[in-house]
Amino acid sequence: MVWRVAGALLFAMIAGCDKKPPPAPIAEGVQTDAAPADAQQLATELFDLIDRVADYRGSHEGRPPRSLRQLGVDSLTPNTVRRLTVQGRTFQVTVAYRRKDGREVGACSAGEDALEQAALNEGRFAVSCETRQGLQGLEVVR
Description:
Largest sheet: 5 strands, antiparallel
Strand content: 25-35%
Helix content: 25-40%
Distance between the termini: 51 Å
Structural class: alpha+beta
Number of domains: 1
Number of strands: 5
């Protein structure tokens, strides 16, 4: 009888724990933490490229690709220009709009640490972006 009561109390305590709901997905075009929509669009592409470069490095004895071509990715898309900078075993990826056309953000860059930041911060990670006001650090969501 005592075990049943203790079990019921334990179950009630666990069920009553305050759990946060998972973060809602970011709708397309919605700004995150004052990050312009232009930065968010670049960050989505940037995160994918960083993930691919890190994956390549993981399967090539710790060596990142020397170029996006070696990774099997085009450096030009209809809207963006992509660049990969490698120094030793570290790398940085930059994605820039081909045409600025009044955009608030022209280019964004980040390194492999964006993967860890996104994993630990509910998808949020920091990027360095070229804006109308100069170089700025912004927080975006993958």
